[in-house]
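Subject: Protein entry, chain in single-letter code together with its fold tokens

Area: Proteins and the way their chains fold up in space.

Attached in line: The record itself begins immediately under this heading.
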Amino acid sequence: MSLMGASTSAGEKRARFRTALKSGRLQRFPGAFSPLVAKLVAEIGFDGVYVSGAVLSADLGLPDIGLTTLTEVTSRGAQIAAATDLPTLIDADTGFGEPMSAARTVTLLEDAGLAGLHLEDQVNPKRCGHLDGKAVVKTSEMVKRLRAAVAARRDPNFVICARTDAAGIEGIGAAIDRAKAYADAGADLIFTEALHNPADFEHFRDAVDTPLLANMTEFGKSELLTAGQLADIGYNVVIYPVTTLRLAMHAVETGLREINSAGTQSGLLDQMQHRSRLYELLHYAEYNEFDSDIYNFALQGVAP
């Protein structure tokens, strides 16, 4: 990792992600709601970074019902992707319109440095994948969406993942049929939303040859399987899309309520990231070494 950003090019990140899908090893992609969180994901040693559409919507104070724009998603995705040397996979909802819009989505996200995206087969406006009342488009319409996306791709290593929400609407058998059709249309990775238990994941793995992505989101319809369980089943990627936002927002709410009731944050210090740890994560010392004429204050004895 270089001082000002990633030391690895977008093309190299994509090649790494493409190779990882064929490695036989489960790739763990926690969600990051900011570039700073992405830096922590990388430092801890995960395989990639995920940018959730639900999280991006929530961060803007909006529900996950298709209100965000391609510009907002591209901008935030670019910032997060640039923060680390890890490949970043982003949620592109339904492609922000008709097949031609899906093609433009691929172009812009590729230019923004993302390693891949996923497109889903819901109708517009989409809903959060773990809500009831979803509807999916015909398989033929999603195939057109995917073919347009694949045709727009210039870097062959840019990963196009197809998400299907059909399991909870039409049944797992129909979702498997869709997955096969989506793979035939050029999808590199299949994401089946809202499977319930290990048997569902095993059923899907046995039926589909394409690399598979599992969504381990909390408080939804899926049982939370461990990375070991998913690896044993044969999944290729697991995402934890909203985990970091939920952790952060719970801590923020607890802290704000404490300040409101106690009139001070002094009782919360042991629950906070220390300033010195933040500086370490941001590599303040390296900035000092890079140009001591600009950055010229010491870190010793920093107060919390």
About this structure: The chain has two domains: 10-243, 250-295. The CA atoms of residues 48 and 86 lie 5 Å apart. The chain has 13 helices and eight strands. The first helix runs from residue 10 to 21.
